[in-house]
Write a structure and sequence with these properties.
This protein has 160 residues and is mainly α. It is built from 9 helices and no strands. α1 runs antiparallel to α2 and α2 crosses α3. It comes from Labeo rohita (Indian major carp). It holds the Pfam family HTH_Tnp_Tc3_2. This is Degenerin-like protein asic-1.
Amino acid sequence: MGKTADLTVVQKTIIDTLHKEGKSQTFIAKEAGCSQSAVSKHVNRKLNGRKKCGRKRCTTNRENCSLERLVKQNRFKNLGELHKEWTEAGVKASRATTHRRVKEFGCSCRIPLVKPLLNHRQRQRRPKSSFQMRASFVFHLETKVLESGGRVDKLRAQVA
């Protein structure tokens, strides 16, 4: 049971055929699975459905497809490059609109950041991971054991 604008195509055809046969609105409503008022409004006004509310979109589906094609050609273009190419193709849209459309496609219009490598000084200051610390600890113990004349295999079994 919904409003008149929510009637499906099947419900509308059922309403039209039963109305032509001369059936009552309550009977038509039960057969179509909607309210009697929806049947009345459909019969009297021939409403085609609910219209979209709000502002119209400034780009068409065809223009959106052209932007999607540009994005898929090179995923590493930034927003400025995409907007420039799209407007050169004849689309009148702002950068914000371009950004929204690209996000609708599920893409992010930005260049991925490339981080610089660490220099020698930064690597020295970086805290050691547990694996590096453990390896240096084992190496330190092995040298102590070798200096004292003990067995390295026995020590490795204890540490591991």
